[in-house]
Amino acid sequence: MELKTTDYCLLESVSSIEDFLKLQFKASGNKLKKHFAKKFLNRSLNAKSVLTLPLNFINDGAINPTYIGSPLEIIAEDENFFVFTKNSNQFVHPLTYDESDNCLSFLRQTRPELLDVNKENYDRGLLYRLDYETSGVMIYVKSDELYQNLRENFATVAKEKIYWCWVQGEMTLQGEFKHAFNSSEEKGKRVKVSEATGVGQIGEFAIRPLQFDSTTKRTLVEVKLKTGLRHQIRAQMAYLGYPLVGDTFYGGPEAQRLYLHALTYTLEVNGREYFWDSKPHNFNGL
């Protein structure tokens, strides 16, 4: 249960706010550094002082129950999985309590019992993540045991991951491509792509053009993702000379959105094949 107040009245003096928070909230040093400046934590407080704390701290790790985004389309549900379509320009999970336009806040509002999975982590039962700008199939696992098993073996369990994207130019390339990826995982940093002979993780996908629009000079491309690296499709397509439409971060032209959509995911779990797809809406590359 989340705490609703941010004001605390101290009954006795404390040597520092840091000591009080560690005792009262069982907060680790890393958690305190995440929310407060060292100068604030070092302050001493007298008895009957009022300490005001942000809700993001006292509810750290909780999911906001108020969802303010567009409704999410539910694709399928059974005893193991809850599958839905993520909207573009939306986070899959929050990083702070006050974020409420994300997929997990939608679940908290509509299906709160699902959030009992993997409760110590922000992504709960989400099997993977999609970039903020990307839309498409999202898979939520409904039990801790299955979740841990699938996350540890995702590379072999995921049999097919198909994406659609619009790229700038008339693309004629087709086939499988491997490149080396170097990324510090820092926010705001582009992924560096080079030939597969270079140093770095190997990213692999297969691509084929589906449709060329002669008016906009843009091509709809099917991507079969073999690996799953940060910004892989975006960076790899840009390296090949075909940046995604709307992906100005990697040199693409401005557009109504970044045109990347997770179309199909196929899993094989305990000898059973699961297949889910999500046709994109308003996906015209303009």
From TrEMBL:
Residues of the Pseudouridine synthase RsuA/RluA-like domain: 81-238
Signal peptide: none
Positions of transmembrane segments: none
InterPro entries, A to Z: PsdUridine_synth_cat_dom_sf (IPR020103), PsdUridine_synth_RsuA/RluA (IPR006145), RluA_PseudoU_synthase (IPR050188)
Domain of life, source organism: Bacteria
Official protein name in the record: Pseudouridine synthase
Organism per entry: Bacteriovorax antarcticus
Organism placement in taxonomy: Bacteria, Pseudomonadati, Bdellovibrionota, Bacteriovoracia, Bacteriovoracales
